[in-house]
UniProtKB/TrEMBL annotation:
UniProt record similarity statement: Belongs to the TRAFAC class TrmE-Era-EngA-EngB-Septin-like GTPase superfamily. EngB GTPase family.
Top-level taxonomy: Bacteria, Bacillati, Mycoplasmatota, Mollicutes, Entomoplasmatales
Cofactor(s) needed for function: Mg(2+)
Location of the EngB-type G domain: 21-195
InterPro entries (UniProt xref): G_ENGB_dom, GTP-bd, GTP-bd_ribosome_bio_YsxC, P-loop_NTPase, Small_GTP-bd
Function: Necessary for normal cell division and for the maintenance of normal septation.
Keywords recorded for this protein, A-Z: Cell cycle, Cell division, GTP-binding, Magnesium, Metal-binding, Nucleotide-binding, Septation
GO biological process, one term: division septum assembly
GO terms for cellular component: cytosol
Coiled coil: none
Protein name, UniProt field: Probable GTP-binding protein EngB
Gene Ontology MF terms in the entry: GTP binding; metal ion binding
Native organism: Mesoplasma corruscae
Pfam families, per the entry: MMR_HSR1
Length: 195
């Protein structure tokens, strides 16, 4: 897990990006999927990413320095929040596209999905987009502790089928509640930026 983690800044567009060569890993996921909790678990810091922000409210990329600039973690706003106005959705899409298309520091993407549910249309669109970008991708299935034993294999299969999962991508099941899968996730992150 992270030895050091510190919030650096937020940015609405490329004018706010940091100019250097430090690799960045982008974290995306539906609002409420457990993204903030996962980041906080990796950092062992309950306050690093704000848990229980009004879902979908922040429309900024948040940049964190991890392990003294080993890499930067870039936390994207949660998507798929029904009450967000259309123009805010557009701004989100534009911000993400600009970052995906133009950010050379971007080395890998972590996408979180809720292990309890079939991926939504928004999830499917996001994953489709990630596949077409040819970046390295890690899928994190959250809330493992909420599943009964016999649901685990079934739900993973449904999620992979629904997403049309690329077997070259890694899929890790985690529980932020029970701190399961965190060390493995961190090891994969390190591998993704070093590949
Ligand atoms: P975000 O909107 O994706 O940042 O989601 P949050 O991290 O704020 O989590 C949303 C809700 O799910 C909160 O109530 C968390 O406590 C809960 N949660 C997150 N991860 C887990 C998990 O692994 N297990 C369980 N049981 N609850 C979780």
């Amino acid at each position: 897990m992270f030895k050091q983690s510190v919030f650096i800044k937020s940015a609405a567009d490329k004018s706010g990006w940091i100019e250097d060569e430090i690799p960045e890993i982008l974290f995306v996921g539906r609002s409420n999927v457990g993204k903030s909790s996962f980041i906080n678990s990796l950092a062992n810091n309950k306050k690093l990413a704000k848990v229980a922000n009004t879902p979908g409210k922040t429309r900024l990329l948040n940049f964190f320095d991890i392990n003294n600039s080993l890499f930067r973690l870039v936390d994207a706003p949660g998507y798929g929040y029904a009450k967000i106005a259309k123009d805010a959705k557009m701004r989100f899409a534009e911000m993400m596209e600009e970052y995906f298309d133009e950010r050379e520091n971007l080395k890998a993407i972590v996408m979180l999905v809720d292990l309890r549910h079939k991926p939504t249309n928004d999830d499917q669109e996001m994953y489709h987009f990630l596949k077409s970008s040819n970046k390295r991708v890690l899928i994190i299935g959250t809330k493992l502790d909420k599943l009964k034993r016999n649901e685990i294999i079934r739900n993973e299969k449904l999620i992979k089928e629904t997403l049309n999962f690329n077997p070259n991508h890694t899929f890790i099941k985690v529980s932020n509640e029970n701190k399961v899968g965190l060390e493995e996730s961190f090891e994969v992150l390190i591998r993704l930026i070093k590949e």
